[in-house]
Amino acid sequence: MTARDIAPATGKLGVLTPGMGAVASTFIAGVLAARQEGAAPLGSVSQMAHIRLGTREDGRNPLIKDFAPLASLDDIVFGGWDPISANALEAARTCGVLEEKDLAPISSEMEGIVAMEAVFDQKWVSRLDGTRVKSETNMWDQAMALMADIENFRTENECDRLVMVWCGSTEAYQEASEVHATIDAFEAGLKANDENISPSQIYVYAALQSGVPFANGAPNLSTDLPCMMQLSERNGVPIAGKDFKTGQTLMKTLIAPGLKARMLGLRGWYSTNILGNRDGEVLDAPENFKTKEESKLGVLHKILEPEVYPDLYGNIDHVVRINYYPPRGDNKEGWDAIDIFGWMGYPMQIKIDFLCRDSILAAPIVLDLALFMDLAHRAGESGVQEWLSFYLKAPQSAVDGVPAEQDLFIQQTKLKNTLREWMGEPAVTHSEAG
Asked: How far is CA 184 from CA 136, 144, 179, 191, in A?
């Protein structure tokens, strides 16, 4: 096989995060700790995982970071926007994810990562009050201000390349409208302050117009809009979305493929979460929860294929709840009560109580998406990067009418086979064992 012509990862890579709260500050702290103290970047597939090449007998099993020409952690420069926190250290201390003993050695560098004033509209996140917001009131002017921020950051930090990963809040639920149909319609909507344009969409527009790859870590309607897919293709910039796959949905994409593999039936799956951080507060508003609910509910249908297996999966009660509970902070607890059935229809149950740390699970996803999106851009990719579905709750499909794969293990194979293909190695389809 012939390897893809991929530009080298020379110089600095700027990683910009709209939203510099719990997820972004935890991501930044982890990378700084890895750089300064040699702390292992746990949870990062790009840094920790191996990739098998050829047959098992060949014994070729390098680390992904040694196989693919990824940017080095030492070359990353951090930036972003936030309507509340002034810098990454303040954000980390406010969010309370990390202990002071872990922040102290990197505190000066964290404090130096200053958040730019954000494009913010409380209409889309009613539970938050933005105080550090841009003075521009016209959406077109806001987009131009973001593009100026991007260019200033690129110049001041001497970055060769930039990527953007949305780490902000979940916006209120919406469906695509006429303003999202084409690039021209969207630009006219920006100038007219169209009420159907959300802040996250303005960030995507600004990124793609600036030649910056964009990955959407929330369930917001943004990269999956027709106008943004057109803009991505026209400008030759990759996009990926949406919604980081962290706690409860990660469990679903682990358990559901196993049930299907053994042809065990599913009658119901009840999921509830308690969460006390800023994300939990935002999702306490019904209009924002609906956006997240849509993202979470789609997982089982796409994995289990009830239209193919109606006797097993054609009558599922799938319920998702999120409850804001301040004492828990970032330490989310996900409860799943799963009703399955097997031989001769006899019922069985599975109970899962996942006491996870939301931002600890999300932080390595931000790193991997940033590095892989940068790789995709250097490889000449544009449009939807469906091979990164592995990281996302509601992955965006690259083909109209064909849903993206949701099975975590198929997603893993697709991710690694994409890397193999680009590097001129044959695909591995029967086993990922090293």
From this structure: 21, 16, 9, 11
pLDDT of residue 303: 93
**Residue-range definition of the domain harbouring residue 274:** 248-355
Domain boundary among 330, 355, 380: 355
Residue 160 within any structural domain of the chain:
yes
pLDDT along the chain (434 residues), means of 10: 94 98 97 94 98 92 98 98 97 95 97 98 91 96 98 98 96 95 98 98 98 97 97 98 92 95 97 81 70 71 94 95 86 93 98 94 98 98 98 92 90 97 92 52
Instruction: Kindly report whether the global pTM for this prediction surpasses the value 0.85.
Output: yes
pLDDT for res 282:
74
Domain closes at, from 338, 355, 372: 355
Residue 177 shares a structural domain with residue 319: no
Residues in the chain: 434
**Do 114 and 193 share a structural domain?**
yes
17 and 157: one domain? yes
